[in-house]
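Q: My collaborator sent me two sequences in one message, no labels, and asked for predicted structures for both. Can we handle them in order? The first one she listed is below.
A: Yes, handling them in the order given. First sequence, followed by its structure tokens:
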Amino acid sequence: MSLKLAQLNLAKMTLPVDHPDMSDFVNNLDRINALADQSAGFVWRYTEEDNTASKAVFGPDMLVNMSVWERIEDLTNFTYKSPHLAIYKRRKEWFAKMDGPHMVCWYVEEGHIPSLEEAKERIAYLEVHGETPYAFSFRKPFSRQEARSYHS
């Protein structure tokens, strides 16, 4: 079975999501999510109507973005080479700098849907152990082959 790339991205809000200063971010969410859904290599995206589960796992002021992609190059293209980049560049308007990692990638078996708890474990692993094939970021990406052999 082939491996796909899972990613978690956390953002710590500086204001409540319904605050007027968050409106540009909120008003672009559906557009950017639709763009991701239609991007080359997109497989799956975490969705949650009321954010209850993600707030329970990550805290009330965290926004959670979790998705699965065919390849890390697909996620990189969406992140840095699509209209998503314009919103990404404005992140300091809406989100606070985090003390630990705010993003983590890891490989999952095709068909596996990662859970919030799994994502939390991966980002905690990254914070403690640094970049490894088990948990990494764009700064030091690892291949599927490296991930397969890491825990063999």
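Q: And the one she listed second?
A: Here it is, processed independently of the first:
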Amino acid sequence: MAPDSELVQKLLKVYRQQTGQDAKPKCIGGGTYAKMIPNTLAFGPIFPGDEVREHKPDEFMEISRLVENCKIIAAAMYELAK
């Protein structure tokens, strides 16, 4: 999806507001549900500097990061619904 698309810009706006970080959109390898559903993209949950643990035997997330992700996702849902 184009970085300047309305969806990407709304999600970046929410992320920046919630974290105070001037994030840039990233494209990662691998397959996600977003490839199967038109006009969708994967959003979250790894933060810059955090250890990448997904798809490892002991995959986990700290509770503080889980709460932070919940707040970001809730704000994104609100932004996209208005």
